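@channel sequence for tomorrow's demo:
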Amino acid sequence: MTDVANQLFIGGAWVDAADGATLPVDDPATGEILCHVADAGPKDARLAEEAAVQAQGDWARTAPRARSEILRRAHELILERTDELARLMTSEMGKPLAEARGEVAYAAEFFRWFSEEAVRIDGGCGILPDGRNRMLLSRRPVGPCLLITPWNFPLAMGTRKIGPAIAAGCTMILKPAPQTPLSSLALAGILKEAGLPDGVLNVVTTSRAGEVCEPLLRGGRIRKLSFTGSTAVGRLLLAQCADTVVRTSMELGGNAPFIVFDDADLDVAVDGAMVAKMRNMGEACTAANRFFVHRSVADEFGRRLAERMGALEVGPGTRDGVDVGPLIDAAGRGKVEELVADAVERGAQVLVGGRTPDGPGCFYPPTVLAGVSPESRLMDTEIFGPVAAILTFDDEDEVVSRANDTPWGLVGYVFTEGLDRGLRVSERLEVGMVGLNTGLVSNPAAPFGGVKQSGLGREGGRVGIDEFLEYQYLAVPVR
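structure tokens (generated this afternoon):
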């Protein structure tokens, strides 16, 4: 690949790793190496930290309107380069170009949204109840941040964190996933072009995440961690943040229930299932994992879903007409294969798919399993692949109990024509978000996040900027 940034971005400059190390970026559709990028080590992390710390004071004092205008310019530049960014994203993580273009628009919207929030940071003032003091409340940036993003939405997960940090007046170190560093490096170039001052955003690509991140979190100068990834890694990072009480936001794993009641419009439910399951080839924390379908409509729902899933075209994301690209890597596909094999051994019926195709690339076909045993491993494991596992239920209390029987609580989906039932069941689900008769909940204007072991805090929406701000209370005597 040519004309693709492949160095670290530190202090506004493109630099090689201090020890000269590089890491390969693979094309999951072919298994071939696209390019090599700098592989940061501890010394590079210290340089990025120093750049962020040095830039923090001036950046915090920058006028909110100036921060807003930078985000707005970056939003426009992203949209102008939709095709270029989409092809880059498809090359490094596999999603079809149509989906990649959709992610570019989604990513850009976070910058537009937070450009508008940047000028709405307010405080408050009033007389305290005893009448002795006035209370002045102001909101200040929390300080230098470490942002860690996953590979499945490499552009949007960056803008969802960078947008509110810029709007709040925080400097940053961004560590993207090693599988998909190119989108983040391209984003850094766009922000520099949009006028972001040197040192405000630093990007360190690395295969040595522990060596890079742990010293930053334990060192005392990074004041905020925003992480999207697995619950297991999130727990480890929380422990590393404890020593210096680093403020944290965690968007972790999911195990989303998809509930179809007997009065559901099955056309609507199947449409919703296709979105909730097949967005990003199922490689999404919001992906429907456990399909609970009322016994009276389970066969028909399964038949319709299998027909729709079986009609999807699988292939390289750059090829015209492809609906489903490869999974991210061989390990990701191997996990899906093992989960499906386990379910079949426990009695599940394969309605469509279920067999790994021959040839290069990390492809797995859209798969529907019926009659899945509750003891199957995929019932308590985030599948992260194009597999819909159908179980049946008989009554509302039963399905709510089974849906909540998980340590995760990111999102749930409910399909019913009864408004009362829909609202009642949604309120009973132990999740941070619910899609009622829809398979898509993500939106830059809405707060994204979960409960239980699915995370801490919220991203996006009016509350998204709060994660990067602190209150200061000033008492002034009344005279």
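heads up for whoever presents: The domain at 8-252+454-475 is CATH 3.40.605.10 (Aldehyde Dehydrogenase; Chain A, domain 1).
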